[in-house]
């Protein structure tokens, strides 16, 4: 099955108001900037976004928040570098925040993809993040029960893809994306290169195509972390 699309606009057309959307990226590394801006243009609102952070500058996730499209964000680092947009809206009560320790965030996403409804971790025990959550003791140590995370859509960035949706990633840009691809009902990918079938050595495939629904080629994608302050503004 050929999963390639011809335009960014078509790939995000089905994202609906109130959807839960996982967005890959560790800060700017691996952030699918072009897909996010296509979503801004598409107009979906009241989104719940799952990401490592809460956006930087005025591009990508920060731009999505700035356009008042995000009702809630689930992340590990809301106060990352130049998170002005999120900070202003959070302090004004215009966006809801759920903080999740980074390892727990990754495991909650992995659990969602693996069909595991809950798991136990010692992380956050005795802190505000554990308030209201079940706690049990195993071998003399306390563990907090955490729920899986799943999404309606995942937006991720790959280095190479083939028409069946098999993916490779560029170095640290891989981060959360392989996990998110398994935990979403529909995974949408922007790839720097779409190669013919057989163009990716099976030994190098990180995300098998079974977890991918749509692929669009975006040559020379924006690298958020390389932009100047003025370049990183959404028009």
Descriptive notes:
- The protein is α/β, with parallel strands linked by helices.
- Helix content is 20%, strand content 27%.
- Strands 1, 2, 3, 4, 5, 9, 10, 11 and 12 form a 9-stranded mixed beta sheet that branches. Strands 6-8-7 form a 3-stranded antiparallel beta sheet.
- Helix 5 (102-114) runs parallel beside helix 6 (177-183).
Q: Tally the beta strands.
A: 12
- Beta percentage is 25-35%
Kindly name the structural category.
Answer: alpha/beta
Distance between the termini: 37 Å
Radius of gyration: 18 Å
Count of individual helical segments: 6
Order of helices and strands: EHEHEHEHEHEEEEEHEE
Label the overall shape. Answer: globular
Oligomeric form: single chain
Helix content: 10-25%
Main β-sheet, in a few words?
A: 9 strands, mixed
Poorly predicted spans:
none
What's the pLDDT, averaged over the residues?
Answer: 93
Concise synopsis of the structure shown:
With 235 residues, the protein is an alpha/beta fold. It is built from 6 helices and 12 strands.
């Amino acid at each position: 099955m050929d999963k390639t699309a011809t335009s960014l606009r078509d790939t995000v057309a089905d994202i609906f108001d109130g959807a839960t959307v996982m967005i890959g990226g560790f800060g700017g590394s691996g952030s699918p900037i072009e897909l996010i801006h296509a979503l801004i243009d598409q107009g979906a609102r009241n989104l719940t976004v799952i990401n490592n952070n809460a956006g930087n500058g005025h591009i990508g996730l920060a731009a999505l928040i700035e356009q008042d499209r995000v009702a809630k964000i689930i992340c590990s680092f809301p106060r990352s570098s130049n998170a002005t947009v999120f900070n202003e809206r959070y302090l004004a009560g215009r966006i809801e925040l759920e903080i999740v320790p980074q390892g727990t965030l990754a495991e909650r996403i992995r659990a969602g993809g693996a069909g595991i409804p809950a798991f136990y971790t010692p992380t956050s025990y005795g802190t505000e993040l554990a308030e209201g959550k079940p706690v049990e003791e195993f071998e003399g140590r306390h563990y907090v029960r955490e729920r899986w995370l799943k999404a309606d859509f995942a937006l991720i960035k790959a280095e190479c893809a083939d028409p069946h949706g098999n993916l490779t990633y560029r170095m640290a840009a891989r981060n959360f994306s392989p996990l998110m691809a398994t935990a979403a009902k529909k995974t949408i990918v922007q790839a720097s290169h779409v190669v013919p079938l057989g163009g990716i050595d099976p030994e190098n495939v990180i995300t098998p195509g079974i977890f991918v629904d749509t692929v669009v080629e975006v040559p020379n994608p924006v690298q958020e972390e390389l932009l100047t302050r003025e370049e990183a503004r959404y028009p």
